[in-house]
Amino acid sequence: MSTHTYKKFEEAQSGVLPDKMTIYQDCLNAFNESPVNSKRCRLLISRLLQLLAQGQTFPCTEATALFFAISKLFQHPNDSLRQVVYLAIKELSTVSDDILMATSSIMKDVQNGSDMIKPNAIRSLTRVLDESTAFSAERLFKSAVVSKHPSISSAALVSSYHLLPIAESTVKRYSNETQEAVGDLKTFPYHDGLSEHYPNSTYIAQYHALGLLCMLKNHDKIALMKLVQHFSSGSTLKNQLAQVQLVKLVGSLLSKDHQMISQLSPLLLGWLSNKYESVQLEAAKLITSLPDRYVSPELFSSAVQALQGLLSVPRATTRFAAVRVLNRISMVAPEKIVVCNPELESLINDSNRNVSTYAITALLKTGTSNNIASLIKTITNFIHEISDDFKIIIIDAVRTMALRFPEEWKSILNFLVNVLKQGEGGFQFKSSIVEALFDLVQFVPQSKELALENLCDFIEDCEYNEILVRILHLLGKEGPGMKTPSLYVRHIYNRVVLENSIVRSAAVVALSKFALVKNDPTFVDSIEILLRRISNDVDDEVRDRATIALEFIESIKSKGESGSSPAESLIQSKFTYDLASLESKLSQYMAAKQEAFKTPFDTSSIARYTEDERKAIDLKRKQEQLFTTVSSGKSKGKSGVSSEADKKNGSYGGPDATELDQDLQATKYAEELALIDEFKPFGPIVNTSKDIALTETEAEFVVTGVKHLFKTHVVLQFHITNTLADVALDNVYVGCTPALGDGESPLTEVISIPADRIKPSETFSSYVAFEKSQEVVTEDLLNTLYFTTRELDASTQEPFDGDEGFQDEYEIDTLPLTAGDYIRGSFVGDFLACFDELPNHEISVYNIRENLSLQEVVDKLITTTSCLTLDNTQFTSTDSNTHTLKLFGKSVLNGARVALVVRLIKSSKGIALKAEARSDDAVLCSDIVNGLI
Amino acid sequence: MGNFFSSMFDRLWGVNKEMRILILGLDGAGKTTILYRLQIGEVVTTKPTIGFNVETLVYKNLKLNVWDLGGQTSIRPYWRCYYSNTAAVIFVVDSTDKDRMATASKELHMMLQEEELQDAALLVFANKQDQPGALSASEVSKQLSLVELKDRSWSIVASSAIKGEGISEGLDWLIDVVREEQL
After folding, report:
1. Where in this chain does the record put each Coatomer subunit gamma C-terminal domain (chain A) (predicted)?
2. Whole-model pTM above 0.90?
3. CATH number at residue A20
């Protein structure tokens, strides 16, 4: 055999896999031989494992045959052979039946085998055990856990993780031994001259034991607290990972109960100066991710200090982790990490580009309007040296900065245009730049003209259809309103001449919108000439679009100046549909097949947004996205860069998940209500509120309420969940009493629909409908849940015959109908100008005595008013005791605008709040300021 | 050098030829106890065998590969996976368990019909003779209808694994038969 062919199977990287069936046959033959040739069998098993590792699979019967053949190798006492046998059993355990046949043999090895094979035996033992056999292995695990040999102990502990879902009670029975193992410092038992060949023990078993213990006591807060106290004192924990695990344990305790921080903060402070960098990092990460008001400023600043120190350590991974944490803080509270700026600046030139990218993004957030220009300059030099993923992160940071400092638009725009024109970078990168420019155009009106011009330049030389089409759409939307529309027309028509049919079609649509430019008849004529020329295009889609556009223009002309024609709205639509609900409606329509096609698709039930509302939603989404990025950084330990990059990319495509959920939720409710005959006369739903919890989540009956607003009615939908184990609730309804009492309340109850029966862990809805005037009506509704409990027969899950049940009632929280329910958030470019021009004016002052942070009050205000926050006022600064919140929205009833400026001052006595509202609608104006809290 | 000679002698005596022996029988008959009685000469505490135990032992210069398969109902179907190349079967019966004699007989005859076991010698241990009320070897033989067996060397030996009685007598017979037939 030549060396070439001999080596062929040996190299993992060679890519040449042995033939599956040959290996299968060889294995069966060799393993059934007597006596066993251990060397040959080992080789065969290793090839088999190679196959499995490469993703090859065997059908169940073959896998079972292999398993039985392999089980025959237990007759051979060779340790090395036994080790591969265990590996093979572990791999085959998932595909092969009858795996339990190996149980006794493995158990024997765990008990009497050599130290060499014991760990392997333990690991494969967990794979063959099931609920009934796990019991008999308990003693084996127990003694393995307390074994003095670190590998054996670790194997038993780690295997126990896998045993937990199969037989938790068995694992629980040796939790004492596990606790013992945490404190036990185990070393390899080689004390003779050989010991130099063995590694020093890292005491990793401590980590494994602590991890298992945390899982076992997961639900027992007091036991976990004891664990922390026990192992944090002294120096029992030598292992680095075990210490990190302890920090994480403290983190999970704190997330369940923030009050414990006072007890735990000395510990956290101590960890910040731990000798291991990873422990320092973990502690700093934990401290900085806790809600503000629980962390004392001193603790927070020592955490930042620790991170600052870690920025200049030689190890790149540590620097990376530290800068990543700082970057996360910079998104919510940039002022807190300003102290790190010198270090961050020196990291810009770090040899590791991942580190420098994060350093720059953090700097961009901490930057003030003074140093933005110089920062941008630094980035310009730097951006060409990093990979696309990081470029995207940076562009995104620049984009958020652009929204924060609109006055700096010039240097930001220059930067974006420069990188865009450099020509390097892939689609995602380009697309993120274009996205940033779009944001500028939308939210920073001053920059519009310059940005559009630059985009025009860019499309002259752009290789990506998708981007081209989007830019053309934007030009069509914004161009007609600009000073020199003809400029854009030239650029767009160039596309028609030079590009492929996809781009040409988009260009035609954009072009047709210029025909709406008023007071320049010659201009409109030239557009018509262009379109006419295009209607001879080779591609039929392009021709069609041009022809229909011409037709529209013709019809507008024939109407003259007299007013808007439907054709106008077809060219330049004034609103867009809510895409998520449009999609679900359309797919429903399609699914109904022939029947439904007799009637045309009904668009009236789909939410429509005007331009301003769309912008409001966009802005809100972008603001929220900031949050989700922050929180995802908090919870996930994924490789940060890719996950962050994914998130950013995801946002270009579609709305983020929560937003989508909410839209879909509203559509879903609308469908549910449409099915109920009683509500048909009410007409379409005007607005649907969010789900509001009316009970504690751990109550016996969990109730949440949703308010649906109709033109002259209100429907309250209560979701009632029965959390009791063996009781069904019959005839469940909610009694709603308006707080003002009979005769005085503007609401009169018309219908109440109960839920017939709610079985354990089911959720059903009950409805109450009120009639109201067309005006804005606000009222508190006092709610009580009425029901009949009936005990269930455990075997049938049906109530016992003849059980009359037991009537009962249950007080739940008040559901207020507030002015906020009549408002939908909206966007306005220049808030203050708009605020000043609104006619009605109302002021109101509140004092909040509860101990809340400014941010919590702000969050609450945003929810109750359902307005959109503008000018980035949704985040309070943690340094100052004052905050000004700007809110804007429109009435769902008549489109009246509402603008609110809320000033908050925090003092030792509480929070003072002064709200100033202006609106087109006087009633709404006073209602909203008077119902704020 | 010593190794060399010993392996030469081994070859002379036929030791290097391994012989596969299966110990079968209903659950709780005493199979695992017999296995370890043979291997280490002691009584070990056992628990129901989930799967099998396999031990190699040298008996009268013969290397025996003894497989003790679990006897629980759930494991019996897997016996057949281990039939190939088997020189002899030791079938262990709990002589006090009169109720399940019929079951034992059924399992025994079903097993002996297997193609792979046509040439295997059969040794039946009427075990647990130390217990009061145990059936004698001839009674067990009758219950198992051993006389109906044709074309097979078989024998039944009364034994007590706990006391170590009858085990070596049975095995001596088995070794003689197998040596005669197969070597």
Report:
1. 820-931
2. no
3. 1.25.10.10
